[in-house]
Design brief:
Blueprint lengths: L7 H13 L8 E4 L4 H17 L3 E7 L6 H14 L3 E6 L9 H20 L3 E3 L4 H12 L10 E3 L10 E3 L7 H10 L16 H7 L18 E3 L5 E4 L5 H12 L7 H12 L4 E5 L2 E5 L3 E6 L1 H6 L5 E3 L4 E4 L3 E4 L2 E5 L9 H7 L11 E3 L6 H4 L2 E3 L1 H9 L8
Parallel strand pairs: 1-2, 1-4, 2-3, 4-6
Antiparallel strand pairs: 5-6, 7-8, 8-11, 9-10, 10-11, 12-15, 13-14, 14-17, 15-16
Length: about 400
Amino acid sequence: MRGLIDDAFAHGVHAVLDRRLAPASAAPVALALSGGGDSVALALIAADWARARGRALLILTVDHRLNPASGGWTRACADLAAQLRADFLALAWEGQKPAAGLPAAARAARHGLLAAAARAAGARVILMAHTASDIDEAAAMRAAGSTTPSPREWAPSPAWPEGRGLFLLRPMLHLSRAAIRQWLAARGETWIEDPANADLRFSRARARAAAPAPAEAPSEPEQSPLEIETDLAGALRVSRASLTPRLVALAGLCAAGTSRPPRADSLARIAALLAGEEAWIATLAGARLEAGARDVLFLREPGELSRRPPPPLVVQAGKAGVWDGRFEIMGPGRIVALAGHASRLPTMQREALQALPPKARPGLPFDLDTLSSPALTGQAVSLVEERLLAAYGVIDREPA
């Protein structure tokens, strides 16, 4: 087994891990390992940190099935995990790959696989090996017209709902890719070079080849205190004075239960409405916004439920499933939208329904087996508020 690492290079990463991770948790810490230099360095340093602090380390490797050599890369990752005495799980992106938008599709698939595996293992944090060089490349890509965001040190998993309750920690954003490889070479370590990183058909490879000028590390966004209320329907009521374009985008995304952020022009339209003082109603990426003088109500747009109804959810007894990206429901049950079924509810639930915003009621879950709404019986838990708190940065370290 490799020995303990004792140098300033590793200590800087350890300091980030100590700041963000819970000091005494029985949950494992997950780590995404591709076999490339950045992730190999992170695996070495994180394994050393985990041993010293009594934390279990789970190494996850995703085979995207895009290169004939990928099976060998996965075996190399398994070998490294064994040397580090870490648990290991190999994951694979199966199925047909898209002809267009391959990098984005691969990234989404990777995050989904990592999130599902980490949650199943009981982990709350996935370590990712992004570096200062990734920040530079993202800035260069945006300058060329891309909307690629810069990686942040701490952020909720972008996979939804697979990544609910999960956070990504990138403890090497202060280090350059070149410095990491120098450190690995000095230790006699080897790593894999994926040829896709040099394939100029892809925008990130072009940005990397252009050796972009160093960009400033993204700072934590300035934010006002979060003044919100939520209800059983998953509707969010947010103080109008506290709303910024970023908070509007996040609240709309969470209230709609979707994963795709609103378009910039749609967000600008809402910002212009907020600048005034009158009441208004608008839609934003699957959410309905009802603005009053003091606050704005964010809820699931009922028209979207009719146009693109969420598929029915069948939940087995003792299991949990997520319906419409907004409710986690304990089984058993066959769940659809309440729209068209409200008259079938028991009398007490029909009365409770009257206390909820009228336009939010159709978006409640309805169980075809019990003819009741799990949101009104306690069988369902709204994920909306917790998701917004995580996305807004209120949760800034691993839950104890």
